[in-house]
């Protein structure tokens, strides 16, 4: 996309959005409890979590559509307590697009500027820039019913950008698109963000979308933040079992921490002993360990080349396989009864019932918080 709209001039505040001890209740139900977030200027920040975790409520409070029950919310250093939605320097793009079907593309994009009584010359220039930015200038006379889902999403983005917000709020922006178009729009959203340099805050339940687009991610559960970090931090070093299981696929093993000769050990109730990376946990305490499926190596020989020597290597049988195109998902059962998910490249195929060895490094065992 060609970028022509100048990014807004930031204030001297170090953060664009900050939430301090935010609580939101609906009657006796608490949707958000004690939320603390700091969102930096110009970053692409995603709030990720399952349905009902409070992520959309959080976005609506930033937008001004919901009022916090307690706590303070600031945008560019200014408290938003008592500031209505239309006076906040934010704009929201919804999953449903929320376009006016009786208006042309041009009029949909111009609507907010007309409400603000922007002079016609300036209005025409800004609408033209916004449509060019999302490559929809040639569709300006069409109506939403004449557009595809991706084109509608571009119009919704242009309508938000034309107001030159300091913060762009994205509420499941690609959820209504098919898989191929969603992938394409992810690239366009990323390019748009990088070109404009304004802060994007996106709410999504799509883990892959959050990982591919975000500078940082907040994972929510039951109205609370489980972990905040970069995509690689969230994926490679999940703080809790919920984060490990929610972000991508993982294998979770539980047991007692034991002292080993070279590495500490996770000892399961079944008798399995897994070498893990050094940890600050106390010996004999209960721990949970996450092992990503792609970290596990399958072979018909112990520590087969060209793989490195693994600290963990166990005999097993292949129970199920699932072909997904570039990868094959295997369900492997150890002799001690544990079942593990393993991700294999599609040129390596094992058959159900085949005897194999499963191997992985101690460093690939992520010890999780209680």
Structure report:
By secondary structure, the chain is α+β, with helices and mostly antiparallel strands. It has 2 domains: 15-242, P-loop containing nucleotide triphosphate hydrolases (Rossmann fold), CATH 3.40.50.300; 249-367, RNA polymerase II/Efflux pump adaptor protein, barrel-sandwich hybrid domain (OB fold (Dihydrolipoamide Acetyltransferase, E2P)), CATH 2.40.50. 23% of the residues lie in helices and 33% in strands. It has helices spanning 55-63, 105-115, 120-133, 149-161, 179-196, 207-213, 231-236, 241-246, and strands spanning 15-26, 29-40, 44-48, 70-75, 78-79, 90-94, 167-171, 199-204, 216-221, 224-229, 251-258, 265-267, 273-275, 286-291, 297-299, 312-323, 327-334, 339-345, 355-360, 366-367. The strands form 4 sheets. The chain has a 6-stranded mixed β-sheet, with helices on both faces. Strands 13-12-11-14-20 form a 5-stranded antiparallel β-sheet. Strands 15-19-16-17-18 form a 5-stranded antiparallel β-sheet, with no helix packed on it.
> CATH homologous superfamily of the largest domain - what is it?
P-loop containing nucleotide triphosphate hydrolases
What's the domain count? 2
State the end-to-end CA separation. 45 Å
Would you count the extended β strands for me? 20
CATH topology (fold) name of the largest domain: Rossmann fold
Helicity level, as a percent range? 10-25%
Mean pLDDT: 89
Q: Write out the strand line-up for the largest beta sheet, numbering strands in chain order.
A: 6-7-8-3-9-10
Question: What's the CATH class label of the largest domain?
Answer: Alpha Beta
- By secondary-structure content and strand pairing, the structural class works out as alpha+beta
Q: What is the CATH architecture assignment of the largest domain?
A: 3-Layer(aba) Sandwich
String of helices and strands:
EEEHEEEHHHEHEHEEHHEEEEEEEEEE
Shape: elongated
Unreliably modeled segments: 1-13
Gyration radius over CA: 25 Å
Number of helices: 8
Strand content: 25-35%
């Amino acid at each position: 996309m060609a970028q022509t709209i100048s990014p807004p001039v930031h204030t001297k505040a170090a953060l664009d959005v900050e939430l301090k001890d935010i609580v939101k209740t609906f009657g006796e139900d608490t949707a958000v409890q004690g939320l603390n977030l700091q969102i930096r200027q110009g970053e692409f920040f995603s709030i990720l979590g399952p349905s009902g975790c409070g992520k959309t409520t959080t976005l609506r409070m930033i937008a001004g559509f919901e009022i916090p029950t307690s706590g303070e919310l600031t945008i560019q250093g200014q408290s938003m307590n008592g500031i209505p939605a239309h006076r906040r320097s934010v704009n929201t793009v919804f999953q449903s697009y929320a376009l006016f079907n009786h208006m042309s593309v041009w009029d949909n994009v111009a609507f907010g500027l007309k409400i603000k009584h922007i002079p016609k010359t300036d209005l025409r220039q800004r609408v033209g820039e916004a449509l060019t930015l999302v490559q929809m200038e040639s569709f300006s006379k069409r109506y939403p019913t004449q557009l595809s889902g991706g084109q509608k999403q571009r119009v919704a983005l242009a309508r938000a950008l034309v107001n030159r917000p300091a913060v762009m709020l994205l509420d499941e922006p690609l959820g209504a698109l098919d898989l191929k178009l969603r992938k394409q729009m992810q690239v366009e959203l990323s390019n748009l963000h990088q070109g404009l340099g304004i802060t994007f805050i996106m709410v999504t339940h799509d883990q892959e979308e959050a990982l591919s687009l975000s500078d940082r991610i907040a994972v929510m559960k039951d109205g609370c933040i489980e972990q905040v970090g970069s995509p690689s931090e969230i994926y490679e070093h999940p703080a809790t079992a919920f984060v490990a299981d929610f972000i991508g696929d993982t294998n979770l093993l539980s047991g007692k921490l034991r002292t080993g000769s070279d590495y500490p050990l996770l000892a399961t109730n079944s008798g399995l002993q897994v070498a893990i990376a050094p940890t600050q946990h106390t010996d004999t305490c209960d721990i949970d360990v996450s092992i990503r499926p792609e970290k596990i190596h399958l072979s018909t020989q112990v520590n087969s080349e060209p793989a490195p020597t693994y600290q963990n290597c166990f005999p097993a049988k292949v129970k199920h396989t699932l072909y997904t195109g570039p990868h094959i998902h295997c369900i492997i059962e150890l002799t001690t009864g544990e079942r593990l998910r393993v991700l294999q490249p599609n040129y390596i195929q094992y058959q159900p019932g085949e005897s194999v060895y499963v191997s992985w490094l101690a460093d690939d065992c992520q010890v999780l918080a209680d």
